[in-house]
């Protein structure tokens, strides 16, 4: 069976988004400490204000700002000590006119005070405090609710919670959040030649790579991999494995068997699982041309190429896109850094080319010169799509458009980081 008409990676991603916009894997409720990396299934609002009292952001003296209007080093404003604010306790006193109270960073402002003068601008003279800098109301103070007001919107549905977000939830008194369940994924690899790492190598056999790399990458992204298996090049065995995946998984990724050889059964098997079957067979992208996208009565079936670099590269793009689709969220941009290309590179004919590169500093400690020009070299990594060491050695990749003749040595390029 020949490859269908190749489509661009952009069109493949659009197809995934359009066809699987309905996907949601169900929800569960977790504590904030359990919810890291998960996607919110609904919007969140704060419960408690943060902080819930006016607090100092400096070690200093709580005062009435108006009483320091003319304070200076030559003519300081003089105050009587009203005591000391104890960290973690509400002040046991109120500040009267002409009084100041020592307050640590994070301490609760006593009643009557409206500003804090830093301790660096003070001098203690027995029970008298001299302040040598004028203050304005609110100086060095966070008011109650100054960070997060009560009942304020926090995060929208689809937000992926990171470490600072978990801190926001904890600070605002949220004890439980509803998040989408991790999508359950079955990962299969096909090939009569594939052996496990514990098996003895024999002529014509190779060790399994894709099951390991894709599983790790899937779990890093946020899937729950419920099953992995290596299936021989047997059509019936492959059909049985795919049908089983459709009973207890949300998505199937199948590595190998996606090209046009005599034992490449993936498109044929996918078409038997339900309608509409394969809607993409071939992407104008290197590596990863023989990629298969299919749908079986709403269930997503993804056929990855068998070569390790192609398989991992396509999964990093399509697997990530599908994960965010499951959670109703836009795919975030990939972090990148500017660099200078170390040699000429060219795209594969008619295909956008994803080229792994090594980043090497060519000067400076930070990677940037004073005028912010990049001082990293991007060194392309040579090798074929079956050589997993290409990605192991690389720091990122550049994209070489199919619509160009290539990128010349010395050009500034954007290196997308893994």
Explain the overall architecture:
With 418 residues, the chain is of the alpha/beta class. The chain is 18% helix and 29% strand. Strands 7-4-6-5-9-8 form a 6-stranded mixed β-sheet, with no helix packed on it. Helix 1 packs parallel to helix 6, helix 3 packs parallel to helix 6 and helix 4 packs across helix 5. The longest helix has 19 residues.
Quickly list its features:
418 residues; alpha/beta; 6-stranded mixed beta sheet; 26 strands; elongated
Residues in β-strands, percent = 25-35%
Number of strands: 26
Question: Helix/strand/pairing class, anyone?
Answer: alpha/beta
Radius of gyration over alpha carbons?
30 Å
Summarize the structure.
This protein has seven helices and 26 strands.
Reconstruct the topology from this structure:
Elements: H1 9-19, E1 27-30, E2 44-45, E3 55-56, E4 60-63, E5 77-84, E6 99-103, E7 115-118, E8 122-125, E9 128-131, E10 141-142, E11 153-155, H2 163-171, E12 177-180, E13 184-190, E14 194-195, E15 206-207, H3 210-221, E16 224-231, H4 235-248, E17 251-255, H5 266-272, E18 276-281, E19 285-286, E20 292-296, E21 299-304, H6 308-326, E22 336-341, E23 352-361, E24 376-380, H7 389-393, E25 396-400, E26 412-417
Parallel strand pairs: 5-6, 13-16, 13-17, 14-15, 17-21, 19-23, 22-24
Antiparallel strand pairs: 1-12, 2-11, 3-10, 4-6, 4-7, 5-9, 8-9, 18-20, 20-21, 22-26, 23-24, 23-25, 25-26
């Amino acid at each position: 069976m020949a490859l269908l008409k190749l489509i661009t990676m952009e069109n493949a991603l659009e197809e995934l988004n359009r066809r699987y916009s309905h996907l949601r894997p169900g929800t569960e409720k977790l504590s904030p400490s359990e919810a890291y990396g998960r996607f919110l299934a609904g919007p969140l609002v704060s419960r408690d204000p943060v902080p819930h009292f006016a607090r100092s952001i400096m070690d200093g003296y709580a005062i009435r700002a108006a009483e320091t209007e003319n304070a200076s080093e030559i003519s300081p404003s003089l105050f009587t000590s009203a005591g000391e604010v104890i960290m973690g306790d509400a002040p046991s006193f109120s500040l009267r006119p002409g009084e100041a109270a020592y307050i640590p960073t994070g301490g609760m402002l006593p009643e009557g005070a409206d500003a804090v003068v830093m301790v660096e601008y003070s001098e203690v003279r027995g029970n008298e405090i001299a302040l040598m800098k004028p203050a304005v109301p609110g100086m060095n103070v966070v008011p109650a609710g100054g960070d997060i007001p009560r009942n304020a919107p926090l995060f929208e549905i689809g937000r992926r919670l990171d470490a600072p977000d978990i801190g926001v939830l904890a600070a605002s008194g949220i004890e439980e959040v509803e998040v989408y369940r991790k999508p359950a994924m079955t990962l299969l690899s096909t090939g009569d030649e594939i052996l496990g790492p514990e098996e003895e190598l024999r002529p014509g056999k190779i060790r399994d790579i894709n099951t390991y790399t894709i599983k790790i990458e899937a779990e890093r992204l946020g899937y729950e991999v419920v099953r992995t298996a290596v299936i021989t090049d047997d059509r019936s065995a492959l059909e049985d494995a795919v049908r089983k995946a459709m009973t207890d998984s949300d998505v199937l990724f199948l590595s190998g068997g996606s090209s046009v050889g005599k034992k490449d059964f993936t498109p044929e098997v996918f078409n038997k699982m339900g309608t509409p079957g394969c809607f993409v067979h071939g992407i104008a992208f290197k590596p990863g041309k023989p990629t298969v996208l299919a749908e079986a009565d709403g269930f997503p079936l993804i056929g990855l190429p068998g070569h390790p670099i192609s398989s991992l590269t396509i999964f990093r793009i399509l697997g990530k896109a599908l994960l965010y689709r499951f959670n109703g969220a836009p795919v975030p941009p990939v972090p990148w850094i500017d660099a200078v290309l170390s040699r000429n590179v060219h795209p594969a004919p008619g295909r956008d080319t994803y080229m792994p590169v090594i980043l090497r500093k060519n000067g400076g400690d930070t990677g940037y010169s004073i005028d912010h020009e990049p001082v990293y070299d991007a060194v392309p990594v040579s090798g074929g799509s079956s050589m997993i060491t290409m990605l192991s050695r690389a720091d990122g990749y550049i994209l070489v458009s199919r619509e160009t003749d290539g990128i010349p040595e010395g050009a500034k390029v954007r290196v997308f980081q893994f």
